[in-house]
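Researcher: I'd like a candidate sequence for this fold, 409 residues long. If you have to choose between options at a position, lean toward the conservative one.
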């Protein structure tokens, strides 16, 4: 078992929102053994002098699509399963190299990909997944054109979602995803950008269908995440028991306050719309989808302020596709236009950990947590840009006690 004793560092504490000097951290195997403001003694550990750099927990992206190697999701779903899977491993490795040591997939990934990472078959982040997202006919999971009448239920590795209708259809699909290893259920409860037939304002699923998904998730000891943009859609989802509110670009204050009372969590994904606006059309986004971007992009920054003032917890999310995955860290820059830096860092650590069901195990530097760590050249509280630029400011990335990158010298 390999052990490391990290010394001469400043420890980033996301709960206190500050750097702590004079700390030492002992890692044994894949876990953190000890964190102390006094010298730690270990005969077995290799001492690693960090030269005054910042040691912080690995980042958590709570809204990704690792199988989305193309922006055109209809074409992505038609890829051979082997190709879609191998491309996903490359996408996940890229995420790890940006410092994201844990990601939550919101449609497309499966238990097999999560196990492949844990088996060491490739370098990637810890993967929390929901299997395929569930959407109604003509909704955000339905990538068929208006003139495509083929049956939609094709379980391909490159498909992000599946089409289901009716209370019993939702019940069966949710049970199937949970049986296959889904850790939560994702539904499409509003129109979306990357789908051809549903305007942004369209409501997805009836209230009874949403409540059925919530019931099945609750029966399995988990929750429902819902794709949502409009205030009306968010409110009805909260009223139906949805816990994880994805996007929320058009939310209003009364609904944000209702979500707080319900104990919900929001996951804004502003980087997605910025990336799509910059390159979506060139990368194959359909014209009808390009036309929808500005509607949700406009409300994004305002929604951050509304949710922050209401006290609604927000996790970090990026929601990128294909060649846009490179913008994953842009979300830090987007949020910094509105939110305090300490809250942004908490969103990518503490809030994300709770949402992933991994509180105390990731997103913290604490005894018994996974040794998922970043060594940063500088203070991220003073300069949030240090967490961007594809890991350029990371002197080391450590995942499960193993150095993924190391330029400490």
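Model: Candidate sequence:
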């Amino acid at each position: 078992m390999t052990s490391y004793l990290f010394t001469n560092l400043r420890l980033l504490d996301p709960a206190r929102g500050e750097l702590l000097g004079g700390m030492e951290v002992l890692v044994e195997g894949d876990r953190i053994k000890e964190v102390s403001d006094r010298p730690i003694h270990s005969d077995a550990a290799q001492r690693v002098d960090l030269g005054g750099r910042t040691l912080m927990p690995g980042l958590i992206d709570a809204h990704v699509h690792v199988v989305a190697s193309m922006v055109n999701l209809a074409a992505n779903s038609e890829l051979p399963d082997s190709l879609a899977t191998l491309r996903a491993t490359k996408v996940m490795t890229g995420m790890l190299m940006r410092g994201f040591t844990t990601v939550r997939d919101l449609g497309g990934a499966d238990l097999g990909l999560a196990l492949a990472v844990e088996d060491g078959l490739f370098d990637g982040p810890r993967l929390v997944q929901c299997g395929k997202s569930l959407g109604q006919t003509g909704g955000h999971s339905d990538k068929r054109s208006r003139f495509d009448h083929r049956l939609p239920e094709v379980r391909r590795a490159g498909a992000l979602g599946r089409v289901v209708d009716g209370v019993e259809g939702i019940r069966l699909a949710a049970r199937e995803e949970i049986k296959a290893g889904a850790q939560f259920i994702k539904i499409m409860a509003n129109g979306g950008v990357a789908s051809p037939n549903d305007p942004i304002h369209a409501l997805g699923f009836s209230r009874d269908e949403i409540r059925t998904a919530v019931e099945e998730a609750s029966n399995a000891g988990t929750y429902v995440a819902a794709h949502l943009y409009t205030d009306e859609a968010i409110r009805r989802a909260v009223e139906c028991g949805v816990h994880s509110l994805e996007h929320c670009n058009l939310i209003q204050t009364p609904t944000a306050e209702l979500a707080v009372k319900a104990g919900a969590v929001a996951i804004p994904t502003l980087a997605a719309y910025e990336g799509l606006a910059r390159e979506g059309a060139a990368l194959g986004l359909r014209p009808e989808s390009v036309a929808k971007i500005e509607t949700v992009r406009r409300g994004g920054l305002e929604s951050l302020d509304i949710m922050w003032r209401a006290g609604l917890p927000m996790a970090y999310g990026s929601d990128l596709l294909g060649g846009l995955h490179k913008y994953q860290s842009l979300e830090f820059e987007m949020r910094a236009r509105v939110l305090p830096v300490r809250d942004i860092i908490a969103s990518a650590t503490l809030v994300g950990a709770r949402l992933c069901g991994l509180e105390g195990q990731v997103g913290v530097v604490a005894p018994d947590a996974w040794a998922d760590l970043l060594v940063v050249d500088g203070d991220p509280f003073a300069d949030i840009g240090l967490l961007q630029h594809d890991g350029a400011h990371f002197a080391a990335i450590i995942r499960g006690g193993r150095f993924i990158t190391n330029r400490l010298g």
